Amino acid sequence: MKKIVSVLIASVLIQGCTHLASVSSSSIPKAPQRNKPVMVEAKKMIFMGFNFNNDYLNDMAFRLANQCPNGKIQGVVTKHENVLYFGPFLYEVRVSATGFCTRG
Amino acid sequence: MMTRMKKILLSLCLVVFSGCAFMHHTQIGEIDSSIVLRGQRFEVLVNETGFSTQELASTGAAIARASGNSQSANEIQGVGEIIALFQMGPKTGKPTFTDQYADNIYYAILDKCPSGRVSGITSIREMAHYPIVSGEIVKIIGYCKR
């Protein structure tokens, strides 16, 4: 019994896997304009694959804009990754967007 | 009789409650904060029905097996496996009969924002998954300066 529990605990701890699903980038500003990076992240923990919407992504652009209220955000790199905690039973979908706040 | 009713009810529950949303890809474009913070948010959705012949075959085989016709079940399963061989390869979501459903999304955006001054466009490619069929969806969220 102890062995089974140990194997289960070890499998949970050891098997943290990440999968990079997609990356995209918009055009990157010139060097002098790359001094104010901005970043937002949206994530959702999904249990047994039950996920009924992807609305957690809806306000990412708005949250980015809030970090640069008087300018433009360029060089936006969007990264979508899946982090598996317990095989297909429990995983996290993570989307991050980074960019540079430039003067408008 | 009761067992069969239970099976039918269980199948119906699976169909009704198994609708799940899968996200395949997200992209955020450049952001003009004055438009995003002070403009009007809009959303454009285009979709196409995905159809899985393999899942159809598996369901058909399961029904045939449940009704005691294992010969037919095996034949249906065999057909499903042959189809599966032809549909192997890279794919996103379930197969659709056309991949042109998002080609005119530019015009759909202009419909929502006739001025064309849009910013903060978030493109999401997702799938609403149901047994056998799926909604293959492209969603665009953006902000419009009127």
Task: Tell me what the structure shows.
The complex is a heterodimer of chains A (104) and B (146). Helix content of chain A is 19%, strand content 48%. With 104 residues, chain A is an alpha+beta fold. Chain A has one domain (16-103). Chain A has a 4-stranded antiparallel sheet, sandwiched between helices. In chain A, a hairpin with a 3-residue loop joins β3 (71-86) and β4 (90-103). The longest helix of chain A has 13 residues, at 2-14. In chain A, 20% of the residues are buried. The mean pLDDT of chain A is 90. Chain B is α+β, with helices and mostly antiparallel strands and 146 residues long. Chain B has 2 domains: 16-51 and 94-146; 53-93, no CATH class. Chain B is 42% helix and 32% strand. Chain B has a 4-stranded antiparallel sheet. In chain B, α3 (53-66) runs antiparallel to α4. Chain B is elongated, with a radius of gyration of 21 Å.
